[in-house]
Write a structure and sequence with these properties.
By secondary structure, this protein is mainly beta. The chain is 12% helix and 39% strand. It has helices spanning 3-18, 24-37, 82-87, 138-147, 427-433; strands at 42-48, 54-58, 62-65, 73-79, 92-102, 116-127, 152-157, 167-169, 182-192, 204-213, 224-229, 238-244, 248-250, 255-263, 269-283, 287-303, 307-315, 329-331, 358-370, 375-385, 410-415. The strands form 4 sheets. Strands 3, 5, 6, 8, 9, 10 and 18 form a 7-stranded mixed β-sheet that branches. The protein has a 5-stranded mixed β-sheet with strand order 7-4-2-1-21, with helices on one face. A 5-stranded mixed β-sheet has the order 13-20-19-15-16, with no helix packed on it.
């Protein structure tokens, strides 16, 4: 039986429960009207297993590492067929989060050999509930008020410090044949008799999530370096000083490099080459270091002997200019969504080399070319990271003792079994069948 057959049966099941009969034209008209009337609200991602027994709701698919603590992975499990679990008491629902380092292509996984390694894993039983259910974030409490406490159950994973961030190695351009290599996170909920039992694939919900790094504001000094280069037949050296305006940069921000040249030699400085290099260290079975230039500029100079100059140059590393470079480290992608260059890895003292997966750092390389074949090279390290996402300021905030969470509008995003939006080919019908009186649907159909 095909996947479409199971999806059709799930839709028919919900039609019978809610006593709705809506034609395709009515669904299209309802979709158009809802697009016009949709209001801004809290976006929530939903995904249902193929046989419709369970659904998973999650408020965000990005979790921020603040280099000290990490946002909790908080979600809500909805048991759609709770009567089935009452008749089959040996079955339970578990939630699992796994960080996997994939270092080979999918089509090479033969004879039971998988080219991947689990760097972190954690699991818990969500249903039946053990103890008292606890909401750790405001978005969970909002979802429970929408879904009802009888069939909805919250769960939360507290990620430890020192685990790797989501990093993807850029494949060949337009190559969609397999998953790219790198570190990825997956949140799985499944129905099974035991936590270590292999579940039925029709009773599994897999949600791809990613962990990003936010380097906190610090009083780190400006990167600075100086060098003196002696040349043959020249009694005095060429003295060069270079510094950046700050140590931490946000993705897409322009980097300003201040260079002071004191030429006491007998040679003239003719040209300046400025570049930003990404250095990716693959920490697995051996140290493999890959260097890639992500931005470069050249400037003509004319610094004559006994002359001193002070100039400022700018450079801006962007992914748009490097999409054809294979092996470039990028921030973790959820399917084909837009991403950016990988953030700098900030390792804690408790981190081990194998647990980091891929270590990424950036340097600004300065090359001064002088007459008669000489050159001066300098390198300045810096940190590239993310700003704090806006939604984290409210929805990821812990619930106070006296909770004031309200039933605000929730925009629901449906995801299919591969992690993309829309759970079925007619996802609009399924949205309309869910018994949410106050829910505002966004009806976005772009891939995540």
């Amino acid at each position: 039986r095909s996947k479409q057959w199971y999806q059709r049966r799930v839709r028919e099941h919900y039609f019978k429960q809610t006593n709705l009969s809506m034609s395709t034209s009515e669904v299209k008209d309802e979709k158009k009207d809802s697009k016009k009337d949709a209001k801004d609200g809290t976006r929530v991602f939903k995904k249902m297993c193929l046989d419709g027994k369970i659904s998973t709701y999650i408020g965000t698919r990005e979790f921020v590492d603040y280099v000290g603590h990490i946002d909790p992975v908080a979600g809500v499990l909805l048991v759609n067929e709770i009567e089935w679990f009452t008749d089959n008491t040996e079955y339970k629902v578990f939630a699992e989060i796994t960080a996997t380092f994939r270092y080979g292509r999918d089509d090479l996984d033969v004879l039971g050999i998988n080219f991947k390694k689990d760097l972190y894993t954690d699991a818990m039983q969500v249903f039946p509930v053990r103890g008292v259910p606890f909401c750790s974030t405001k978005i969970q409490e909002k979802l429970l008020k929408k879904l009802g406490n009888e069939k909805a159950f919250p769960f939360t994973f507290e990620l430890p410090a020192g685990i790797p961030s989501s990093v993807t190695l850029q494949p060949v351009k337009n190559d969609q044949s397999s998953k790219p290599c790198g570190v990825e996170y997956c949140l799985r909920t499944y129905v099974a008799k035991d936590m270590h039992e292999t579940p039925n694939r029709k009773q599994v919900v897999d949600l791809l999530i990613k962990k990003i790094t936010h380097a906190p504001e610090s009083s780190a000094p400006q990167p600075y370096i100086e060098s003196a280069k002696n040349f043959m037949m020249s009694p005095n050296p060429l003295h060069v000083e270079a510094r950046l305006d700050k140590e931490r940069y946000i993705h897409g921000e322009t980097i300003y490099v201040h260079i002071t040249t004191g030429n006491q030699s007998t040679r003239a400085v003719k040209k300046l080459r400025l570049s930003v290099k990404q250095i990716a260290n693959i920490c697995l079975f051996s140290n493999a270091i890959y260097k890639c230039t992500v931005a470069s500029v050249e400037h003509d100079l004319n610094v004559q002997p006994s002359q001193t100059t002070a100039q400022t140059f700018s450079i801006r590393p962007l992914l748009e200019e490097n999409k054809d470079k294979r092996g470039l480290a990028l921030d973790g992608q959820i399917k084909s969504e837009d991403t950016n260059l990988a953030s700098s890895t900030i390792a804690l003292p408790i981190s081990t080399r194998e647990s980091l997966g891929i270590v990424v750092k950036y340097i600004v390389k300065i090359e001064l070319l002088v007459s008669m074949g000489g050159e001066v090279k300098l390198e300045l390290p810096f940190t590239l990271s993310h700003p704090i996402p806006e939604h984290h300021e409210e929805d990821m905030e812990p619930i106070p003792a006296a909770s004031d969470a309200t039933t605000d509008n929730i925009n629901l995003e449906l995801l299919d079994e591969s992690g993309a939006y829309n759970n079925t080919t007619t996802a609009v019908e399924e949205q309309l069948l869910i018994d949410f009186e106050c829910v505002e649907f966004s009806h976005k159909e772009t891939e995540a």
